[in-house]
Amino acid sequence: MRRRQLITLGTALVAATALTLTGCGRSDTGKDDKAKDVDAGAAKGEITVWAMGGEGDNLPKLAADFEKANPGTKIKVTAIPWSAAHDKLAGAIAADKTPDISLVGTTWMAEFAKTGALDPVPTLVDKAKFYPASVEPMTVNNQMYAVPWYVDVRALFGNSKVLSKAGVTKAPETWEELKAAAKAAQTKGGAKWGLFIPPGGLGSGQVLLPLIWQQGGDIMDAGRKKFTLDTPETVKALTYYKSFFEEKIAPKAFAEGDPERWFTKNELGYNLNGPFMVSQFAKLGGAGFEKEFAVSMVPGAAKRTSFAGGAGLAVFKSAKNRDASWKFVNWLTDAKVQSKWYDIQKDLPSVPAAWESGPLKDNPNNAAFGKQMTDAKAPPAIQTFEQVNTMIESTVEKVVKAGLSPADAAKEMQKKADAIGTGN
Predict the structure, then answer these.
(1) Mind listing the pLDDT tens digit for each residue in 89-113?
(2) pLDDT at residue number 359
(3) 229 and 175 in one domain?
């Protein structure tokens, strides 16, 4: 479930324990849930934290600085695999045996917030310091229940050698420019494929949704009560998506590792991917390849919106050391601390101020992701998003591979989304 696979975390596990959570006896959130103040002074005592993946392994290195600044404080970190995290958190909430703090995937927020187990974010935390796109998935019923710790966003990777040979001199900014440049990568640049995007299935939702958003559309209404998938914006997005496969610019079939291999072997013009691939492409391409690709914002229509994700830090109402926990969470989102965390873990900071110095500013390929975060959007914070997204991705596959028309696909997605519901 790590972001290197998908930036929406917890795909397969949400449905498995939804019934457990809705029956745990806590009240629904959003009606009378109000943030409480945090006492002044230094933090003290033990703070228990659950963190997943590399964050769980590396957080103790950073936490040592907090312990030095707050004598008498001990941060106890338990590392948990992403694959087990959702069920473990769900069980802890149901049994009222949670840690003080846990890392929470963005697409889990609505589900866990509805249990009433999460402590609303206090005024100690300045919500204005974060990228707006990182705050959105942490907010349920207008109440913020976790603090964005790291962000993830998709941007456009271009193979400089292929594109130079093709005569492409600047990064595409519009849908039309992307298609023209991708075609040129094939016809003039010697690439096998102009662009890689998923031919439906896993990951295709992260491409399709931004195409809808870029036109000013959305998949739900502003109140997050109704789905709005059967719209002209969805039809236009699906039509554009499908055209890359109809015109044989993008492959309908691929094996695991093919897109990365094609890109590093100069057989692919463009690849939509996440920030973790900056270092991965440099490594896979061998000595000097880090200078043979460039990252830019995704091309767009009226806007250049991309898909944002990441994870947040939540404090539980049952926390034994609640005030100290919030002080630790607030410290973790300080700009200087986030910069140091990037050095340790390579997680992208959720605070724009952390991008103003060091490798995030100096490396243009890293800096491109910070720029993209200024025009990024997270999926709606509803309990059933994973189910809806899986349905959308399977429908995209029908459009690409089975000939389903974009108009019929939009109607099918609307009907199925309505049947799934919001879970709220």
Answers:
(1) 999 999 999 999 999 998 899 999 9
(2) 86
(3) yes
For the chain, percent of residues with pLDDT exceeding 70:
92
Q: What domain range includes position 344?
A: 14-153+308-369
Identify the H or E element spanning 183. Answer: helix 175-187
CATH number at residue 354: 3.40.190.10
- Cα distance between residue 59 and residue 264, in whole Å: 32
Buried b (16+ CB within 10 A) or exposed e, 70-109: beebebebebbebeebbebbbebbbeeebbbbbbbbbbbb
H/E element, 149: strand 147-153
What does the pLDDT read at residue 8?
Answer: 38
Regarding whether 173 and 72 lie in a shared domain, the answer is no
**Same structural domain for residues 250 and 340?**
no
Cβ(162)–Cβ(189) below 8 Å = yes
Number of folded domains that form the chain: 2
Same domain, 289 and 392: yes
Please tell me the distance from the alpha carbon of residue 406 to that of residue 232, in angstroms, as a whole number.
10
Q: How confident is the model at residue 22 (pLDDT cuts 50, 70, 90)?
A: very low
352 and 399 in a common domain = no
- Cβ within 8 Å of residue 192, ≥6 positions away: 186, 262, 267, 268
Extract the tokens encoding 55: 């964050």
Based on the domain organization, do 289 and 394 belong to the same domain? yes
Do 344 and 274 lie in one domain? The reply is no
Average pLDDT over residues 53-70: 97
Nearest alpha carbon to residue 206 among 36, 30, 369, 396: 396
Q: Sorting pLDDT into bands at 50, 70 and 90, what band is 273?
A: very high
* pLDDT for res 24: 44
Residue 28 lies in a domain: yes
- The reported pLDDT for the residue numbered 424 is 73
Q: Which of 153, 135, 131, 139 is nearest to 6 (CA)?
A: 153
* Angle at alpha carbon of residue 211, lines to 372 and 191, rounded to 5°: 80
Rounded CA-CA distance 358/344 in Å is 13
Query: Are 94 and 181 in a shared domain?
Result: no
pLDDT for the residue 212: 99
50 and 89 Cβ atoms separated by less than 8 Å = yes
Rounded CA gap, 365 and 75, in Å?
34
* Helix H or strand E encompassing 143: strand 143-144
> Rounded to an integer, what distance in angstroms lies between the CA atom of residue 170 and that of residue 149?
33
Q: How far is CA 316 from the centre of its chain?
A: 23
This model's pTM is above 0.85: yes
Lookup result for tokens 């001199």? 169
Task: State the amino acid at position 55 in one-letter form.
Answer: E
